[in-house]
Amino acid sequence: MSERLPLTGVHHVALITADYERARRFYIEVLDARILNEAYRHERDSYKLDLALPGGIQLELFSFPSPPPRPSYPEACGLRHLALATSDLDASVALLKRRGARPEPIRVDELTGARFTFFADPDGTPIELYETQA
Fold first, then answer.
1. Band (26; pLDDT cuts 50, 70, 90)
2. Does residue 130 contact residue 116 with C-beta atoms inside 8 Å?
3. CB-based contacts of 29: which residues, under 8 Å, 6+ apart?
4. Strands 34-41 and 57-63: what pairing?
């Protein structure tokens, strides 16, 4: 195949929450997201919140009435987790703990040697912090 699809990167990641206000606070207060746009869509009884995380990552946070729970255990097909890069895993973990998040113990990727940990958003969405070289 000689012709390549002209992709330039990931534009955004979209998440659905069961508790809009709780998730909104988490992403803003715990993960330092900045609001780009927030709208209530009356016809869907749904909020749509566009957020910018540090590092240029954009999230769309949606609320819908009574969304089904996320099947995490056992893991289901589809998007597995959101992975965020950090140049200082220890400082990131310490700050997350002070903000009320509960990161798992730090592990080492057996293939790359990089350190990482996981924690979850209020809806149980797994979020990975992966240490990269600055």
1. very high
2. yes
3. 99
4. unpaired
Q: Residue 6 corresponds to which tokens in the numbers above? A: 């002209």
| Rounded Cα gap, residues 131 and 85, in angstroms | 6
Give, rounded to a whole angstrom, the gap between the first and last alpha carbons of the chain. 35
Q: Smallest Cα–Cα separation from 129: which of 101, 111, 60? A: 101
Tell me the C-alpha distance between 130 and 90, whole Å. 11
Helix (H, G, I), strand (E, B) or coil at 28: helix
- Helix segments in 1-134, DSSP class H: 20-25, 89-98
Residue 55 near residue 84 (C-beta atoms within 8 A): yes
pLDDT tens digit sequence for 54-105: 999 999 999 988 888 877 767 777 778 899 999 999 999 999 999 999 999 9
